[in-house]
Design a protein that fits this description.
Blueprint (H helix, E strand, L loop, with lengths): L13 H6 L21 H12 L10 H6 L17
Pfam family, one: Methyltransf_19
InterPro entries: SAM-dependent_MTases_sf, SAM_dep_MeTrfase_SAV2177_type
């Protein structure tokens, strides 16, 4: 799920999208996920500016919102962490 959730609005039910590939998988299966977060004012401003000129909005979510998509799953090390590009 790398680079996918930014293309899905909250109305598109991203939590269901995250859990769908796990349906029927055996215990111990893994899922990698990345999502843009709204934790940096400069990034928030830049994304908002791009959104006004685009047919598609990129939803920046809080880390807590993104983590909520993983309810019922057990994170493995390093867990849910920020990354730097």
């Amino acid at each position: 799920m790398l680079g996918i959730l930014g293309q899905v609005s909250d109305a598109g039910r991203p939590g269901e999208l995250v859990r769908a590939p796990l349906a029927g998988r055996q215990a111990g299966s893994h899922l990698a996920l990345s999502d843009g977060t709204g934790t940096d004012e400069a990034l928030d401003t830049a994304v908002a500016a791009c959104t006004t000129q685009s047919a598609h909005a990129y939803p920046l979510r809080s880390p807590e919102r993104t983590a909520s998509f993983l309810t019922g799953l057990e994170p493995v090390e390093p867990g849910i962490v920020p990354t730097v590009a």
